[in-house]
Design a protein that fits this description.
By secondary structure, this protein is an alpha/beta fold. It is built from 11 helices and 9 strands. Helix 2 (40-55) packs antiparallel against helix 9. The chain starts with a helix and ends with a helix. InterPro entries: IL-17_rcpt-like, SEFIR_dom.
């Protein structure tokens, strides 16, 4: 048995390492990052992750921190638009993810609400309606707990960062991950990302009950939702066509759009119908 083990070790030790294929990233792909606003330190980790993907993985990163601080942008509208135009959607697992998906509500810490639960509901609808879920991926950080059941049951592929950063880059650019791929990353950006991760891990170590202060207080099986933006499901019904100029102008004002020209009536109606039908 010892001889067999030694022979096995020598065989694998003497085997040449797999050929690594350098990848030149030519095209830019849009990536939507979804996450819970656990705390300031965790959101900083997400920001640094977005910087790495933008600078090193050549991704157009759609991130609420960058786009929802602009006055006049509606969070719900931005989420729907981003889900529609993103080539890839990355779901980051964090300590608060499971509780948010179980119905608990985070206190709003920023000028815009937390979009994680609403976004995951959209993903579940899309995944259950299709066999192929290749557009979505789960991202695990060094301090991520186990993936929530609501997501693990969907069979979405997972990547641990920073160790799987090359594989995540291959996923973003639709490169075959079965082949060995290598891609260089900016050491300074990775250092900033890891520093943010360390800051978050220090918060978790030094303040064991930090999550208790992040959720809206529950009183009598109800939450005090004053100041919390509520998301409502779009009713499952036949969409109404905007057949008059007045209706189109009202819809444009409601959704933050410019009123369409007369020669774009058909296209404007088609776009609005598509957005409504896609997530019912």
């Amino acid at each position: 048995m010892v001889v067999g083990s030694a022979a096995f070790f020598l065989y694998h030790h003497c085997q040449p390492p797999p050929d690594l294929r350098d990848v030149e990233l030519v095209e830019c792909h849009s990536v939507l990052i979804l996450y819970c606003d656990d705390c300031e330190e965790h959101s900083r980790v997400i920001f640094e992750l977005g910087q790495v993907l933008h600078q090193c993985a050549k991704a157009v990163v759609l991130l609420d921190q960058n786009e929802l601080n602009i006055p006049g942008v509606r969070p719900s509208r931005w989420l729907i638009d981003s889900m529609c135009r993103a080539n890839r959607v990355i779901i980051v697992i964090s300590p608060c993810s499971q509780m948010v998906l179980d119905g608990k509500v985070l206190q709003q810490r920023r000028p815009f609400p937390d979009l994680f639960a609403a976004a995951v509901n959209m993903i579940i609808r899309e995944c259950t309606a299709k066999i192929v879920n290749s557009r979505f991926a789960i991202c695990r950080l060094p301090y991520s707990p186990k993936t929530p059941d609501q997501l693990s049951i969907l069979g979405i592929q997972e990547f641990s960062v920073p160790s799987n950063m090359p594989q995540l880059t291959a996923f973003i650019h639709q490169i075959d991950q079965s082949s060995h791929v290598q891609h260089s990353f900016d050491p300074q950006l990775l250092e900033s990302f890891l520093h943010a991760v360390n800051e978050m891990e220090n918060v978790m170590k030094t303040n064991a009950d930090w999550m208790q202060h992040r959720f809206v207080e529950e009183v009598g099986n109800k939450y005090d939702l004053d100041g919390v933006v509520k998301f409502c499901d779009i009713p499952n019904r036949v969409p109404t066509l905007l057949d008059t100029k007045e209706k189109r102008a009202k819809a444009a004002e409601e959704f933050g759009l410019l009123p369409p020209d007369e020669n774009e009536v058909g296209l404007a109606c088609l776009n609005l119908v598509f957005i409504v039908k896609k997530y019912v």
